[in-house]
Amino acid sequence: MEQHLGFRGRRALVTGAGKGIGRAVAVALGRAGARVTALSRTAADLESLARECPGIETLCVDLADWEAVEAALGAAEPFELLVNNAAVAELQPFLQVTRSALQRSLDVNFGAVLHVSQIVARQMIAQGVPGAIVNVSSQASKRALRDHAVYCSTKSALDMLSKVMAMELGPHKIRVNTVNPTVVMTDMGRINWSDPQKSAAMINRIPLGKFAEVDDVVNSILFLLSDKSAMTTGSSLMIDGGFLVS
C-alpha cells in the first residue's frame, strides 16, 4: 500500500520510534520513500533501528525536556509529516495515583505532543507547505478502564487537543487526526496480555474477537498521513474491532 500514498521525498518525524508502533511506522514510511527522522530517548533502540533501515535518521532526546527538544528539532530540516506516538502508561488505582506518575504522564502523553506539534507546525507554516499530523491516542480515551485513571485522562485530553489543533491549523493546510487503537500486539502487548483469563475479559467485549496487530495501526496512520485522506481532519479513527459499540 505504501507506494501508492505519495510519501516519496517527504520529510517525516516519528516520536517514540524505538519500539512497537512508532518503530513500525518509521520503517513503513522509510520503505515508502519518505525521509524519516526517528525520535526516542533510548539510544540502543535507535541504533538497532538504524541498522535495520540505514536511511532513517535518528534523534535521541527525552520529550519531557522541552529545552532539549527545542534544540534538537530546531536544528533539523522542516517536516511535512508528524506522528506523535511516544507515550507512557502509569497504571495505578485511582486512590493510589502518585504525583510523579501524574506528572510524567502529563509531560509525555499530552505536553510533549503539544510542544513537538507546535515546533513542527511552525516550520510547516514558515515554509508554506501543507502537512499532516497523526496523534496516537487510545480506545482508553473513550471508555473508562480500571487502574487507568491517569492514562485514560491524558488520552482524552490528547483527543481534544487534536481537535483544537485541527481547527486552528486547518487554514494553514495542516490536517490533524488521531488513531485510537484497542490493545495492540506489540512485543509489550503480548507480554501484558498473555494471561488468557485477563485477555478473554477484554476480547469478549470486542465484536471482532481479537486484539489489533501492529500493521492494523500502521496502515491507519499511513492513510491519515497521506493525501488519500485529504478531506479528513479533527477525526478519531477507532482501531478497536468494535469495542466501543459493544
UniProtKB/TrEMBL annotation:
<dbReference type="GO" id="GO:0050038">
    <property type="term" value="F:L-xylulose reductase (NADPH) activity"/>
</dbReference>
<dbReference type="InterPro" id="IPR002347">
    <property type="entry name" value="SDR_fam"/>
</dbReference>
<dbReference type="InterPro" id="IPR051737">
    <property type="entry name" value="L-xylulose/Carbonyl_redctase"/>
</dbReference>
<dbReference type="GO" id="GO:0004090">
    <property type="term" value="F:carbonyl reductase (NADPH) activity"/>
</dbReference>
<dbReference type="InterPro" id="IPR036291">
    <property type="entry name" value="NAD(P)-bd_dom_sf"/>
</dbReference>
<keyword id="KW-0521">NADP</keyword>
<comment type="subunit">
    <text>Homotetramer.</text>
</comment>
<dbReference type="GO" id="GO:0006006">
    <property type="term" value="P:glucose metabolic process"/>
</dbReference>
<dbReference type="GO" id="GO:0005997">
    <property type="term" value="P:xylulose metabolic process"/>
</dbReference>
<keyword id="KW-0560">Oxidoreductase</keyword>
<dbReference type="InterPro" id="IPR020904">
    <property type="entry name" value="Sc_DH/Rdtase_CS"/>
</dbReference>
<dbReference type="Pfam" id="PF13561">
    <property type="entry name" value="adh_short_C2"/>
</dbReference>
<comment type="similarity">
    <text>Belongs to the short-chain dehydrogenases/reductases (SDR) family.</text>
</comment>
<protein>
    <submittedName>
        <fullName>DER reductase</fullName>
    </submittedName>
</protein>
